[in-house]
Write a structure and sequence with these properties.
- Pfam families: GST_C, GST_N_2.
- This is TCHQD class glutathione S-transferase.
- This protein is 66% helix and 6% strand.
- β3 and β4 form a beta hairpin.
- The termini are far apart.
- The C terminus is likely disordered.
């Protein structure tokens, strides 16, 4: 089994936490979207959406995080031979968490100069890939159009406001739930928690804890609790602290700087 992902990809974090919680062995492949690796011809042939993560088990390839996590659940059941009770609450929370798209929220809270630089670089990559693989040109063109549409959306204050309101509503619902249960769908850690925790990590990465987490005491308590889980430490924690964090960020920054210099000369 192979997982194509990146440590700072929110959906990748969801899947990696689920894999670690289930104790499923897999081969890890890092694909950095900020350097255009997800637009490479080989990766694009496998996954024309160019989104992360991608999970492959033999000929079976799955793209969406929620679909991967549900597949892992079924796989774990098959390997154990047990027949677990159906938990509709877990499924409902997974759907609720999945309904919030973090893309616009992340972009609108990223400094404009960095956002503009990466956007321009990705457009250049897409145009270059069209020439490199003419048979995929129409699909690359779809991604190019999406890139321009995203640039327009991120300038719209109403879209930004809607994303923030949807996140606040989700967090309020979680706060209310955690006043009744230890974890999101009960007193046991579940795939719903694997889906939700990376959202808190994204808020932390954007330095917005005070606005969204600290003001919700039950979520803050829950967040501090899950940070002690091995799955969190492996999938998220080690990339938020110490040399691992700076190595990942430095590699991306160095690559982009070199590309900029090469274009100048």
């Amino acid at each position: 089994m192979q997982l194509y992902h990146h440590p700072y990809s929110l959906d990748s974090q969801k899947v990696r936490m689920a894999l670690e919680e289930k104790g499923i062995d897999y081969t890890s492949y890092h694909v950095n979207p900020l350097t255009g690796k997800n637009m490479s011809v080989d990766f694009f042939r496998m996954n024309p959406s160019a989104k992360l993560p991608v999970f492959q088990n033999g000929a079976h390839v799955i793209y969406r995080a929620i679909d991967i996590i549900q597949y892992l659940d079924r796989l774990a059941v098959h390997l154990s031979g047990e027949i677990p009770a159906v938990n509709t609450e877990v499924h409902q929370w997974m759907q609720k968490v999945d309904a919030w798209n973090p893309k616009m929220f992340t972009l609108t809270h990223t400094p404009v100069k960095y956002r503009a630089f990466v956007s321009k670089f990705i457009r250049r990559v897409l145009i270059a890939r069209m020439a490199e693989a003419p048979d995929l040109a129409s699909m690359y063109h779809v991604k190019l159009r999406e890139a321009y549409e995203t640039e327009d959306k991120v300038k719209d204050p109403e879209i930004m406001k809607q994303s923030e309101e949807e996140l606040s509503k989700l967090l309020d619902d979680v706060e209310a739930q955690l006043s009744k249960t230890k974890y999101l769908a009960g007193d046991e850690f579940s795939p719903a928690d694997s889906m939700f925790i990376p959202i808190l990590a994204r808020i932390t990465l954007l330095d917005l804890d005070e606005e969204y987490i600290s003001c919700r005491p039950k979520i803050l308590e829950y967040y501090n609790l899950v940070k002690h889980r091995p799955s969190y430490k492996i999938a998220i924690g080690k990339y938020f602290n110490g040399w691992k964090k700076y190595r990942s960020l430095f590699k991306t920054s160095f690559f982009l700087c070199v590309r900029t210099l090469l274009r100048r000369y």
